[in-house]
Amino acid sequence: MAELQEVQITEEKPLLPGQIPEVAKTHSVETPYGSITFTVYGTPKPKRPAILTYHDVGLNYKSCFQSLFQFGDMQEIIQNFVRVHVDAPGMEEGAPVFPVGYQYPSLDQLADMIPCILQYLNFSSIIGVGVGAGAYILSRYALTHPDTVEGLVLINIDPNAKGWMDWAAHKLTGLTSSIPEMILGHLFSQEELSGNSELIQKYRNIVMRAPNLDNIELYWSSYNNRRDLNLERGGDITFKCPVMLVVGDQAPHEDAVVECNSKLDPTQTSFLKMADSGGQPQLTQPGKLTEAFKYFLQGMGYMASSCMTRLSRSRTASLTSAASIDGNRSRSGTLSQSSESGTLPSGPPGHTMEVSC
Ligand code: BEZ
User: Fold this and answer.
1) What is the DSSP letter of 279?
2) How many other CB atoms are found less than 10 A from the CB of residue 234?
3) Is the CB of 302 inside a 6 Å radius of any atom of ligand 1?
4) How far away, in angstroms, is 41 Cα from ligand 1 center?
5) Ligand 1 pocket member 355 (CB < 6 A)
6) Is pLDDT at 353 greater than 50 in this prediction?
7) Which residue has the higher pLDDT, 130 or 318?
8) What are the backbone dihedrals phi and psi of residue 256, each rounded to the nearest 5 degrees, phi first?
9) Where would I find the beta strands (DSSP E) of the chain?
10) What pLDDT was estimated at residue 173?
11) Is the beta carbon of 13 within 6 A of some atom in ligand 1?
12) At what angle do helices 286-299 and 61-69 cross, to 10 degrees?
């Protein structure tokens, strides 16, 4: 049994107008693979899973998820859930640089650290929200601990190990680009990077000037050495919970997510391909993602229509199954996402829908 240690730091969180202050507590626990830090927002809600997030390479929980979780419409969702935001080792704010020769955990080992977090918090189940490497880690965790995962939101998931072609391309890119540039190319499309918007400038700074860049490079290396998840439609290795796959159209991982979708059970999977969202939909399209997340939770029976906005209520009225706010769930696993024009594409229940919005 891992020895658990607690470090409590109370964080300030910018408030939205009219929002009641919510205390965030940062904790660290020891695991067989080293210490892991996570920040808890909100209080546990009876009969409800925690929302547990895992960020991508080059980011931490705040730079990856703050825009989404502090988005106005998101508040009506998250007030019903406790959130656990994990920082990969060495990615937490103020993390010291690991000593030379430090063996950074593999992505599988990072997934194996999650039970220590849940045990420490005494939480029995989660809805995982992961981006890139974080999506892979949560997927691995869901495959090894299916009874504790009620749902997965996987943004930019690439479930495949790098093949030799990918390695050759990676090596060639490495001849002309620095590792931070390669990480930026993993996070954003080339079009976005050359457009150099304010968002890109901000994230270029975050990655290029990170005081823990050496640690980030270790996480990057673990990501590039990931094993194949070996997902197979109809096979033994598959998710046992509803999954929402998200990717931006023309984003760096579009093909990988499309392929992942083809390997999952269509009755349990929703596929959201988002237009105009670039490589990081949770940063650029928090509103659309919030709405999709609401439908996803509603499909799992967690969002009663009474707690949804009038707009969402009218759009979903004909699609959703019975839902209750007190955790009396029906697992339809069906999701629809509204399009920009406000029309709701519908399909037979239990079918994967690919929707551009
Ligand atoms: C949250 O409320 O869960 C949250 C707040 C700030 C950053 C990330 C998440």
Assistant:
1) T
2) 7
3) no
4) 7
5) no
6) no
7) 130
8) -65, -40
9) 9-11, 24-31, 34-41, 50-54, 83-87, 126-131, 149-155, 243-248, 269-274, 354-356
10) 83
11) yes
12) 80
The closest residue, in CA terms, to atom 7 on ligand 1 is 66
Region of 92 on the Ramachandran plot (φ > 0 left; ψ -120 to 50 alpha; else beta): beta
- pTM for this one? 0.85
- pLDDT digits 0-9 by tens, 146-178: 999 999 999 999 999 988 888 888 888 887 789
Collapsing DSSP states into helix, strand and coil, what is residue 353? coil
Residue 336 CB partners (closer than 8 Å, separation 6+)? 270, 295, 316, 319, 344, 345, 346, 347, 353, 355
The protein residue whose alpha carbon is closest to atom 8 in ligand 1 is: 66
Decide: 41 in ligand 1 pocket, CB within 6 A.
yes
> What is the length of the chain?
357
Looking at this protein, which amino acid is placed at residue 93? Answer: E
Pairing label, strands 50-54, 126-131? parallel
Gap between the terminal Cα atoms of the chain: 46
| Closest-CA residue to 113 (of 57, 36, 205, 7) | 36
Choose which residue among 19, 25, 65, 131 to substitute to test ligand 1 binding: the one with the highest number of ligand atoms within 8 A of its C-beta.
65
Confidence tier at 315 by pLDDT (50, 70, 90)? very low
- 208 C-alpha to ligand 1 centroid (Å): 24
Contact 289 CB / ligand 1 (< 6 Å): no
pLDDT per position as a tens digit, 272-309:
999 989 999 999 999 999 999 999 999 999 977 655 55
Q: Whose C-alpha lies nearest to ligand 1, atom 4?
A: 69
Return the closest-CA partner of residue 16 out of 82, 72, 83. Answer: 72
